[in-house]
Amino acid sequence: MTKETIRLGISTCPNDTFAFHGLLSGAVDCRGLTFEIELLDIQQLNDRLAEGAFAVAKTSFHKAIQLADTTVVLPSGSALGFGVGPLLLAATAESQPSSLAECTLCPGRDTTATLLFRLFYGDATRVEQVRFSEIMPRLTAKTADFGVCIHEGRFTWEQHGLSLVEDLGSRWEAETGTPLPLGGLVASRRLPPKTIATIQDIIHDSLLVARSDPAATLPTMRMYAQEFSDDVLMQHVDLYVNDWTLDLGDVGRHALATLSNRAAAIGIGTGRPLEVFAGEQEKRN
Asked: What pLDDT is attached to residue 276?
């Protein structure tokens, strides 16, 4: 019998390579499925997902809102939490939000970081979309005034002599009282529900493998991380991988609904709220 092949896209960020270590290393039972896995930058994933390149992919929740008609969010694999938000940084300590008519760098037009910036700084007039790893070097070189920083840079921005303008995640938390949803795994609605349920179970198992022995995931994370310090990698995992990554639960679902509603208020989305897949395991719980 020919195995069903699933095209899976995940990011190169440590939280994804940690979560998918079990699958990447062959440590989990794939239950008759074969996975073709591609690791890309998050904006590349957003673009390729929209083009139909993947059956399942990690995507920014900003993009997931735009694709709500064609995808469903998986209960496992999301990055959301308190204290996980992007940082709005300035090249110099003298730069203030009132001068956001100057150039602000954002990490991809469909990232949740860009959505937050649009929600909180909708009057910014000069926004340039760049790869996330270019933002701090550009600020350090003073070829841009402001930048929205994500991933490992959250831990290293002070080493670059940059100034913090605002923690956008803290602002989200203060205004909504919910954890900030950054990104998650979505599956195409064209997949049979039984296949989606199987994929969900595999991802859940992969997360359990990683959490049972975090040190074993370091070689996988080092292959793709922008920062090679084991301490920074584990800081990243500790920040972005939590119980909501294993299962969104009611709190995670409420956070997604809040983000959907706020995006809709500024004209983003299809009018359909994000839907979290409810497989047999979900229905039993």
From this structure: 97
Fold agreement between 4-81+180-284 and 87-176: yes
* Active-site option among 21, 62, 151, 204: 151
Residue pLDDT, tens place only, 201-253: 999 999 999 999 999 999 989 888 766 688 888 888 888 899 999 999 999 99
d(C-alpha 8, C-alpha 174), whole Å: 35
* Residue 142 neighbours by CB distance under 10 Å: 9
Q: Per residue in 169-178, is it b (16+ CB within 10 Å) or e — as a string? A: bebbbeeeeb
* Residue 151 is a catalytic residue: yes
CB atoms within 10 A of CB 159: 9
Angle made by CA atoms 83, 86, 91, in degrees to the nearest 5: 125
Between 3.30.70.1560, 1.10.645.10, 4.10.480.10, 3.40.190.10, what CATH number should domain 4-81+180-284 receive?
3.40.190.10
Asked if CATH classification 3.90.1200.10 holds for the domain at 87-176, the reply, yes or no, is no
Q: What share of the chain is helix, strand, coil (3-state, %, to 5)?
A: 45, 20, 35
Query: What residues have CB less than 8 Å from 123, skipping those under 6 apart?
Result: 100
Count H helices and E strands in the chain, helices first: 14, 11
Q: Which of 210, 219, 201, 179 is nearest to 279 (CA)?
A: 201
Q: Which helix (H) or strand (E) holds 203?
A: helix 193-212
DSSP state letter for 90: E
> What's the per-residue H, E or C state across 13-71?
CHHHHHHCHHHHCCCCCCCCEEEEEEEECHHHHHHHHHCCCCCEEEEEHHHHHHCCCCE
Using CA atoms, how far apart are residues 111 and 109, in angstroms rounded to an integer?
Answer: 6
Q: pTM of the prediction?
A: 0.88
